[in-house]
Amino acid sequence: MAMDVVDYEIKGAEMQFVEVELDPGEAAIGEAGSMMFMDMGITMDTVFGDGSQQTGGLFGKLLGAGKRLITGESLFTTIYTNQGQGKRRVAFAAPYPGKIVPMDLRELGGTLICQKDSFLCAARGVSLGIALQQRLGTGFFGGEGFIMQKLEGDGLAFVHAGGTVVRRELKAGESLMIDTGCVVAYTGGVDFDIQYVGKVKTALFGGEGLFLARLTGPGHVWLQSLPFSRLASRIFAAAPQTGGGTREQGGLLTGVAGGGLLGGLLGGDQE
């Protein structure tokens, strides 16, 4: 399928969204639930599997859906097509604080490997697949990096990452050690491997886990400072327990059994 060439504008700071401008007949594909708004004249069509597989018959549709299911995404993709006479815009919003990164696959060699939950939207014609790491050690200990999404084509795709995003260029043979959750995406020429941290004390008490990702060039690597898994674990750790218990860090203010300071101020310990 021919790639649609679209214009875009990324707006916002911490909670960004991207506006994609479509000429008559052009279309964009979006992850389920990512659409923010769209102009009149744009039609939505939810398709089974990968939007780029629609000309491949039933087998192509099943193959595209199966790839998305393995990566943890929805079986369906939504296509937004401009059926009007003039330019129309459709916007896609980031699911949590971070940055939206535009990826021109034509300039990146036609292939981009990214975290399975980072894809936001793309121009029609970009193929969404899976990238399974081949090494046995990576499969067992790769964590988020074992099953990743593969974006293929020569169109424009948008990837979302948490916190601040950094792009690093690796020369041939140059390696970078990264927490597996902080890897957002990398180009097809980059080698992904898992390496043991080497010291038991560091692995047990360093807070970084037993294994790190080692990415070796040549190619480009995108990193995020706040993976969603890390954000979710911090929120869970700070949340008060149910059943009358308290968290250690929140006992002064949110104690349930004794009322705590907040309970006293609100009259919770009065008879």
- The top level CATH class name: Alpha Beta
The strand line-up of the biggest sheet is 5-6-3-10-13-8
Low-pLDDT runs of 5+ residues are 138-142, 245-266
What helical percentage do the residues reach? 10-25%
Spatial extent as radius of gyration:
22 Å
Q: What's the architecture in CATH terms? A: 4-Layer Sandwich
Q: Please tally the helical runs, counting DSSP H or I stretches of 4 or more residues.
A: 6
Beta content comes to 35-45%
Report the principal-axis shape: globular
Distance between the termini: 72 Å
Strand-pairing-aware structural class: alpha+beta
Q: Strand tally, please?
A: 19
As for the number of domains, it is 1
Descriptive account of the structure:
The strands form 4 sheets. Strands 5-6-3-10-13-8 form a 6-stranded antiparallel sheet. Strands 11-12-9-16-19-14 form a 6-stranded antiparallel sheet, with helices on one face. Strands 1-2-7-4 form a 4-stranded antiparallel sheet, with no helix packed on it. By secondary structure, the protein is α+β, with helices and mostly antiparallel strands. It is globular and about 65 Å long. The chain is built from 6 helices and 19 strands. Strand 1 (7-11) and strand 2 form a beta hairpin. Helices cover 17% and strands 39% of the residues. It has a single domain (7-232), classed as Double-stranded beta-helix (4-Layer Sandwich), CATH 3.60.160.
